[in-house]
Amino acid sequence: MSEENNEMLLLMKELVDRVKSLEQQVYNKDNVLMKAGLVVHNTPTPSISNNSIAPTGDTIGKMSWDDIHKMVENAG
User: Fold this and answer.
1) Residues with Cβ < 8 Å from 34, sequence gap 6 or more?
2) Distance of alpha carbon 3 from the chain centroid
3) CB within 8 A of 71, min separation 6: which ones?
4) Which of 34, 44, 68, 74 has the most CB atoms within 10 Å of its CB?
């Protein structure tokens, strides 16, 4: 049982060392990927701009079917 624990401990140490090595490669200031612009620190955040005002449920409830069909056609 002790031999299995030692092997598991060695394996875990090896994995931790490899992860640390990968982290150093990614965060290194001289990293080729960073210089090429393939890895960026700040990425743009997507946003949805809706220039038209969406009708509320009350507004839609008071509309005629023809108006609703026109609104759906204009949305598409």
Assistant:
1) 28
2) 43
3) 55, 63
4) 34
Query: Domain count of the chain?
Result: 1
pLDDT band for position 60 (50/70/90)?
A: confident
Supply the pLDDT for residue 62. Answer: 87
Task: Output the six-digit token pair for 17.
Answer: 């060392």
Q: Among all chains, which residue has been given the structure tokens 């394996």?
A: 11
Phi/psi at 72 (5° precision):
-65, -40
Average pLDDT, the chain: 78
Structural domain range at position 36: 1-41
In contact, 31 and 39? CB cutoff 8 Å = yes
Contact indicator for 39, 26 with CB cutoff of 8 Å:
yes
